[in-house]
User: Fold LysR family transcriptional regulator from Sphingobium cloacae.
Amino acid sequence: MRFDLTDLRLFLAVVDAGSITHGAIEAGMSLPAASERLRDMEAAGEVLLLHRGRRGVVPTEAGEALAHHARAILHQVAQMRGELGRYAKGLRTEVRILANTAAISEFLPERLAPWLTAHPQVDVELKERQSTEIARSIAAGFAEIGILSNAAGTEGLTLRPFAIDRLVMVFPADHDLAGKRQVRFADLLDCHFVGLMDGALQKHIEMQAARLGAKIKLCLTLRGFDGICRMAGEGVGIGIVPETAARRAKRSTRMAFAPLTDDWATRQLSVCVRDETALTPAALSLLDHLTSSSAC
Assistant:
């Protein structure tokens, strides 16, 4: 029975996601390739590892045992790399970061730049994910550092404060909402929205609407917050963006904004890792920089 590290990472991703499709995405594989690997793992061990159903997959008793040992093995591999990294000189290294939309667009560029300049031998692989996915992926060892909101379950992870992210509603300066100091999301669901194109934040907003039994009425989707603010200012539709983006855009566009009163709209962003002692020197240095008082 031979399983390589890619097999183990894929299996954990599938188990944690409860889905072969989502596990394959997390492991960076196509669905056919992931399915074939899983079948080969079961064939090699002559044992059923996953119960497959309409609502996803769950591990069998043998699968639970494999998941337990896979976590231990991947953890030891991470520790090994961390210890060896202390002796490496002049070699390029990589730190993998998963972060939500607000962190990537509003906070990370300014904080990452000086650290990367001071560490030219380090490459950073940065991917956007929803906070719940980030917590799951960090726990499974698919990245060293995650930046997520307090909406995600983070049991078993080490957290450090990163930033406060406040979401606000943006609209034309002459809109009926312009006189309000704050607004409720539920009162806006009859409006047409300008939203993000395939962003983790957009999925978060749509999930909040679904909890209210509604669906966001999107008239346009764009790739960035500045574009949303500009379109909202012109009256195309209202939008939801981080307060930092709204304040920046207000200097050059005809728009106004008001905070959302909903609890989910004010989020504590935290940096999370699975085990600080298992981080490579580069990852630990970046973690310390991102959460230092000077960076914040």
